[in-house]
Amino acid sequence: MRHVLSISAALAAVVTLSACSESADDSVERALQQTVNVVDESDLNDVILNSADPNEAVRYFQRSLGETPDRIDLQRGLAHSLVRAKRFAEGKLAWQRTVAMKGVTNEDRVNLADALIRTNDWAEAKTVLDQVPPTYETFKRYRLEAVVADSNKDWKRADSFYETAVGLTTTPGSIFNNWGYSKLTRGDYSEAERLFGEALRQQPDLFTAKNNLILARGAQRNYTLPVLRMNQTERAQLLYTLALSAVKQGDTNIGEGLLREAVDTHPQHFEAAAQALQALEQG
């Protein structure tokens, strides 16, 4: 009898251990599956975030947030997508919600400052940037610091931030262009010309830098085009900018000649230059 009881107890123990083993296996499987799902969803979020249609990304993140509103990664994705879609007022609100959530990062605060600048909330943008510790050093942070300092005409800080930003990127063309435009607005035309030239050395096809360079030269009454890589259309447009600079400074005859050259250079009909030339000839 004792043998029967012992066997029964042993069988019961085996069944129990088997059940525990199955339960543990199920738990491990569920945990692994949840991890895979999280990874897959994270990859999907990245794909959606970088999709060609930012408005489709906005709809995706809005739907996802409707199901799990406490997910900061989804809120962050929505904010990014709204800004990409140029829905800046909505993007600002989305970034404000992001920085109020658990798990907020310094990068989130910098992105909020960027959205605030896009909606002309300069004072609030400065307040947000002041909350970012100085140890957080990124190109975007210092680029924003520079334009905020520019808006406050705090030239010394602006120059310092521009210089720091240049050192934090391998493609500084755009930041040199911004820095040059800052110098242009201050009336430091020769330094502006130098910085626009540096922007074009880094990024030869940056047309805004080409046009700004012409403005800086024109402000110094230098009405010759520099040696730049340009096509016919760009050359005509730059001649037009130079002509307007000459007329603005009272050098009307030079401006008229430059306008005529712009009209002749453009591969198609250059309406704006033709109208300006006609006005000068009649005036």
TrEMBL record:
PROSITE patterns: PROKAR_LIPOPROTEIN, TPR. Residues 1-24 form the signal peptide. It comes from Tritonibacter multivorans. The keyword Signal applies. It comes from the Bacteria. This is Type IV pilus biogenesis/stability protein PilW. The keyword Iron-sulfur does not apply. Keywords: Signal, TPR repeat. TPR repeats lie at residues 173-206.
